Every structure is written in C-alpha cells, then in structure tokens.
C-alpha cells in the first residue's frame, strides 16, 4: 500500500497597510444615536377622503440625505422623506419625516462622503420606513411600505446634478 505523502504549503499573507487615520480595532461605522428629528402628518380632506378612497392612494415620495460634520470623525446624517398620497385630484395625506443620526466613522477621508450619503442611510432606512408606515396607519390609511431605496443611484444622481450646476 502506497503511503500518501503529506506536503505543507506555506501560505504567504501580506500585511495590509492601514490607511492613515483609520484604527483597525474600531468598526468603520458606529451609529451613536438615531432619532426622529421632525415628523408631520396631515390629512387635509378628512373625513370626505375616506368615502372617496376605493383603493390605496397614489403615492409620491421624495428622499434626500444630508450630512454635517460635528467633530473630527463624528457627523450628523439626516434622511428626509416627503410623502404625498392622492386619491384622484384630492390630497389624501401629506407626511414629512426627518430621521437623524449621529455617527462616528473610521474610514479613509476619501471614503467619508459615500459612506455618509450611502451606507449610513442604508442603516437608517428600515427605521424611517417603519415610522412612515405607522404614521399613515394611525392616520386612517393603509400602512405605506416604502420599497427599498437605491442610495448609490441617489448619490450618483445628486453628484451629476451638482456637476451640471457647477459647469453652467
């Protein structure tokens, strides 16, 4: 019987350099707090709108993300929603939400903007969506379940709009 010859392969690992200002022992995103900064709900055509509604209202949603530096690596990030529900030509409801957070980032400086405007909103979105759904339900309408938002596309669209405005 032939013996199997065992060989040991040496695995070489290159130690990756840590970018300046990044601590490898700290997560890249730390959400220090989340909070509802502003919430508004109006149903200007009640109670008549409830007699008109035969199905869920048509809904228009606009979303914006804003970030501001608070300290060296600490930022506030606001996720803003404006939601308008309509039934025919009548406004069923209007709701506005600004859902905020304070985050500490441990990423290279060149990644700050995309992390603040893409990754942090991805973490905040489920909480904001739940507040909007509950608010609409409490207002007498079906809960509004907002589909997931492509924050990368939103970021790229805003960057393109800024570049177009700057080139004029």
Characterize the structure shown.
- The protein has helices spanning 48-52, 112-138, 151-166; strands spanning 29-42, 58-69, 74-87, 90-105.
- The mean pLDDT is 89.
- A hairpin with a 2-residue loop joins strand 3 and strand 4.
- It is α+β, with helices and mostly antiparallel strands.
- It is built from 3 helices and 4 strands; from the N terminus they run βαβββαα.
- 29% of the residues lie in helices and 33% in strands.
Mean pLDDT across all residues, rounded?
A: 89
Q: Give the spatial strand order of the biggest sheet.
A: 1-4-3-2
The radius of gyration over CA amounts to 24 Å
Count of strand segments: 4
Largest sheet: 4 strands, antiparallel
Q: Tell me the CATH superfamily.
A: SecB-like
Offer a quick outline of the entry.
With 168 residues, this protein is an alpha+beta fold. 29% of the residues lie in helices and 33% in strands.
Question: Helix and strand layout, with pairings?
Answer:
Layout: E1 29-42, H1 48-52, E2 58-69, E3 74-87, E4 90-105, H2 112-138, H3 151-166
Antiparallel strand pairs: 1-4, 2-3, 3-4
Helix pairs in contact: 2-3
Task: Write a concise keyword list for the protein shown above.
alpha+beta, 168 residues, Bacterial Protein-export protein SecB, 4 strands, elongated, four-stranded antiparallel sheet, single chain
């Amino acid at each position: 019987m032939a013996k199997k010859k065992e060989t040991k392969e040496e695995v070489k690992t290159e130690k990756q350099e840590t970018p300046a200002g990044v601590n490898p022992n700290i997560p890249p995103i730390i959400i220090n707090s989340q909070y509802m900064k502003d919430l508004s709900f109006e149903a200007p055509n009640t109670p008549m709108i409830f007699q008109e509604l035969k199905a869920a209202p048509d809904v228009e949603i606009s979303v914006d993300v804003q970030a501001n530096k608070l300290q060296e690596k600490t930022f506030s990030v606001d996720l803003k929603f404006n939601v308008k529900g309509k039934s025919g030509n009548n406004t069923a409801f209007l709701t506005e939400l600004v859902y905020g957070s304070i985050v500490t980032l441990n990423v290279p400086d060149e990644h700050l903007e995309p992390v603040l405007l893409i990754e942090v909103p991805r973490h905040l979105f489920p909480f904001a969506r739940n507040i909007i759904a509950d608010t609409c339900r409490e207002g007498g309408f079906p809960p509004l379940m907002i589909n997931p938002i492509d924050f990368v596309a939103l970021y790229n669209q805003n960057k393109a709009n800024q570049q177009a405005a700057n080139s004029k």
